[in-house]
Amino acid sequence: MNTKHSRMASPPDVPIDPATRLALYRKMMEVRALEKRAYDLFLQNLIKGTSHLALGQEAIAAAFGVAMREDDYTFCTYRGHAHTLVRGASMTGVLGELMGRECGLMAGKGGSMHLTSVPHGAMGSYAIVGAHLPIAAGAAWSAQYRGTEQAAVCFFGDGTTNIGAFHEALNFAAVWKLPVVFVCENNLYMEYTPIGAVTAVEHPAADRASAYGLEPLIVDGNDVEAMFKVAQTTLARARAGQGPSLIEAKTYRHSGHSRADPAKYRPAEEVAAWMRRDPIKLYREKLLQQGVEEAAISKIEASVAAEVDQATEAAKASSVPEESIAMTEVWANGDWSWRN
User: Fold this and answer.
1) Banded model confidence at residue 330, pLDDT cuts 50, 70, 90
2) Which end is more exposed in the chain, N or C (fewer Cβ atoms within 10 Å of the end residue's Cβ)?
């Protein structure tokens, strides 16, 4: 990762306790296992259409999943399996939704790009690039108005930084000092195009922060502890009424933009360099260096493997939703009743 001109975020050097370290590792393992299983099920023709996997980007979701309060709000993109799972949604619910089964989070009607679990604060995955940033600001405004000290966390890709909604949401969040944390998952590519080829600044999110009076924050998105500390700091800032934060997390997807993308446009040496920085491999090695027993790590890995196997079988056994529910919970009619 090139950090020559980066203003790397420097979170407070507060030790992370052993239980939290293992929780971070487990969250990353859960996301990795789920995404790999989703890929396998696609190859078996059990998942239709396309989907966008977060393989290689697990540390960002895991860090916020551990740092957030249960009543906080998450908003994510079509690459949202990870962010929904780490908020507490079940593997069965996620895989069931991907497979279009009744056990899915939305009874199989939403599919991969629209995962939502309101009981867990996962307020939707948005297929329209940038659409969810103003919505996240609205949720934060609601929390501010109600005085709940809840925070909204909004995840988006580097390509979103060139969308008008990005700038509009940042501006209003800053003006109103909303309790929202904007997290740019910069994996260097907007679908098939390098973000640097179409952006006037080196850091597409961080280099725009000062325009809204915000501190430029760049963090290694493959270092789960660095991500966790920045998550803690920015969430605490939001709850204290100090306004929004904009984080640029540098990361890399292990595969193409979607299932249909072989990612041949990426230089082989670039891919190899980032593969050596696999966040799970790096953190496993760090845990061992910190004195965590390998038996404890292996126990987590075995537990997660069993969990994803059980979820897979439960989703396979679930029925396809009945036609009678196809048009339910799809829209609001906008009449007077919702206003009162």
Assistant:
1) confident
2) C
DSSP symbol at 117: B
Picking from 1-5, 74-78, 90-94, 109-113, which range would have the lowest pLDDT averaged per residue? 1-5
Identify the residue whose tokens are 């259409």. Answer: 49
Count of C-beta atoms within a 10 Å radius of residue 313: 12
* DSSP secondary structure of 70-81: TT-EEEEESS-H
Neighbours of 169 (CB within 10 A): 28
Strands 180-186 and 193-194: unpaired
Rounded to 10 degrees, the C-alpha dihedral 42/259/81/47 comes to -20
Least confident of 40-49, 64-73, 233-242: 40-49
Question: Side-chain half-sphere of 198: how many Cα atoms within 13 Å?
Answer: 14
The fold for domain 18-116+128-304 equals Rossmann fold (3.40.50)
- Residue 289, judged by CB atoms within 10 A of its CB (0-12, 13-18, 19+), counts as exposed
Question: How far apart, in whole angstroms, are the C-alpha atoms of residue 250 and residue 273?
Answer: 14
Residue range 145-203, pLDDT digits in tens: 999 999 999 999 999 999 999 999 999 999 999 999 999 999 999 999 999 999 999 99
Strands 245-250 and 180-186, sheet pairing:
parallel
Write down the pLDDT at residue 155.
98
Q: What's the angle, vertex CA 121, arms to CA 305 and CA 235, rounded to 5?
A: 100
What pLDDT does residue 12 have?
58
Q: Which sequence spans correspond to the domains of the chain?
A: 18-116+128-304
Q: What is the CA radius of gyration of the chain?
A: 19
| Helix-helix angle 224-239:279-289, to 10 degrees | 100
